[in-house]
């Protein structure tokens, strides 16, 4: 009887053990299913991970396909783990403008009709920038009307349909605008300098050209006001690229007819007609080689009552990855020491040097990302210390295929609109900037 009882108890214990194991197995299976579901949700939201967070290589391989479906124009070709690690953070909340806003710096780019016609470009602009400069359509060639000037007998400004289309786009997207440019030796129609606007006749005299200059500048600001754009313009390049590396003034028809003081008159007229809300800039390239000459010019731009006619200096910033950042910062500090506002107005950083352009290898692109990071970081530090007063940084485009220096890979996105190391460098995302 005892043996039979023991046999029954043994059978019951075995059955209880089997039931316990089955229950545990079912629990583990459910936990595994929950984990896989969570992983799937993580993959769908991986694009929202902040750039400061680290994504390891295994996670990158799992999430890159999801990211590709959310990012326009990412290549469908296979990418290496190293390439994928950069792409995985391509879609992030906010953009360059959000980083710069923390330091009181505007982030800008140039704008063309091509860019606003395609959402893949327009989306990048609105995501990353809060100011624009029209690439061409506020230059003299585009706003001085020969037909209207011949009709009226007076030099006449008329904004083109493309100009107003771009300004309307900027206004509707909450963009501030830098005006570029009033007086320049290039992209200025020669006929404005001739009698009767006819190049077969002689050049006009100094007084006539000064009157035309004043009328032209006055009309620009009047049209901005009448068309409802004055409120979005906050800066204007009054004179562009007037100084040579030796300190002499560039030979041009403005200078030939009026004389060296044409620059002073341009600022005087702009100061007279521009609203107080629009700051007036002198803008130039190779500024790091012309520093003291530009300083001398800025100091000379003083009205008869002793007030300054200039508000700021625009540094174009067409740099190369082998250029000295320290030397460039010396230039920014020299301009800032004048008490004027300073902006980088056309920034792009090409690979190598002017004499020796490098190819877009992985190492060279990483070096470019590091250069962007270190330059912007030094500017932020300089502003905090009070040694620089850089209020805005405008990139001259954003994708290499849209750049005037596209063969030198100077910008933040490649031709397929993939983020480069330079994008993360510009955005101060150290971990993804090629280090």
Task: Pick out its properties.
alpha/beta, TIM Barrel, 8-stranded parallel beta barrel, 16 helices, globular, disordered N terminus
Describe this structure in words.
46% of the residues lie in helices and 13% in strands. It has 435 residues and is of the alpha/beta class. The protein has an 8-stranded parallel barrel with strand order 1-2-3-4-5-6-8-9, surrounded by 4 helices. Helix 13 links the parallel strand 5 and strand 6 (312-315). The longest helix is centred in the N-terminal third of the chain and has 44 residues, at 2-45. The protein starts with a helix and ends in a 9-residue tail after the last helix.
**Helix/strand/pairing category:** alpha/beta
User: What spatial order of strands do you see in the largest sheet?
Assistant: 1-2-3-4-5-6-8-9
Average pLDDT reading: 84
Task: Please tell me what the overall shape is.
Answer: globular
Biggest β-sheet description: 8 strands, parallel, barrel
| Radius of gyration based on Cα positions | 30 Å
- Sheet-strand content, in percent, reads 5-15%
User: Whole-Å distance between the termini?
Assistant: 80 Å
CATH domain class? Alpha Beta
Write down how many β-strands occur, each being a DSSP E stretch of 2 or more residues. 9
How many domains? 1
Contiguous uncertain segments of 5+ residues: 1-92
């Amino acid at each position: 009887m005892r043996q039979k009882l023991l046999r029954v108890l043994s059978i019951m214990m075995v059955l209880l053990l089997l039931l316990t194991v089955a229950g545990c197995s079912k629990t583990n299976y459910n936990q595994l299913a929950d984990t896989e579901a969570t992983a799937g949700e993580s993959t769908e939201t991986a694009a929202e991970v902040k750039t400061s967070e680290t994504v390891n290589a295994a996670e990158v391989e799992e999430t890159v396909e999801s990211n590709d479906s959310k990012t326009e124009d990412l290549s469908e070709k296979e990418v290496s783990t190293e390439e994928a690690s950069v792409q995985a953070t391509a879609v992030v909340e906010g953009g360059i403008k959000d980083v710069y806003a923390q330091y009181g710096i505007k982030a800008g780019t140039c704008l063309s009709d091509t860019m606003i016609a395609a959402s893949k470009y327009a989306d990048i602009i609105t995501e990353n920038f809060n100011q624009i400069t029209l690439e061409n359509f506020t230059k003299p060639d585009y706003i001085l009307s020969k037909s209207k000037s011949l009709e009226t007998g007076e030099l006449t400004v008329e904004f083109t349909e493309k100009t107003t289309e771009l300004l309307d786009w900027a206004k509707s997207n909450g963009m501030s605008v830098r005006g570029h440019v009033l007086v320049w030796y290039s992209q200025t129609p020669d006929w404005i300098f001739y009698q009767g606007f006819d190049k077969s006749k002689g050049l006009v005299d100094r007084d006539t050209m000064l009157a035309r200059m004043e009328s032209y500048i006055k009309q620009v600001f009047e049209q901005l006001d009448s068309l409802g754009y004055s409120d979005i313009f906050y800066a204007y390049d009054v004179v562009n690229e007037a100084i040579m590396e030796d300190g002499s003034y560039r030979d041009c028809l403005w200078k030939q007819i009026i004389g060296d003081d044409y620059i002073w008159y341009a600022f005087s007229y702009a100061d007279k007609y521009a609203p107080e809300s629009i700051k007036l800039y002198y803008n130039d390239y190779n500024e790091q080689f012309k520093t003291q000459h530009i300083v001398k010019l800025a100091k000379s731009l003083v009205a008869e009552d002793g007030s300054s006619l200039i508000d700021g200096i625009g540094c174009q910033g067409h740099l190369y990855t082998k250029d000295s950042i320290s030397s460039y910062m010396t230039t920014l500090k020299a301009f800032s020491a004048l008490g004027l506002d300073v902006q980088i107005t056309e920034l792009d950083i090409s690979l190598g040097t002017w004499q020796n352009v490098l190819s877009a290898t992985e190492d060279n692109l990483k070096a470019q990302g590091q250069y962007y990071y270190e330059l912007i970081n030094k500017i932020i530090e300089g502003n905090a210390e009070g040694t620089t007063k850089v209020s805005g940084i405008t990139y001259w485009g954003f994708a290499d295929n849209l750049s005037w220096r596209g063969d030198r890979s100077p910008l933040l996105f490649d031709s397929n609109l993939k983020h480069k190391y330079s994008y993360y460098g510009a955005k101060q995302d150290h971990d993804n900037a090629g280090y």
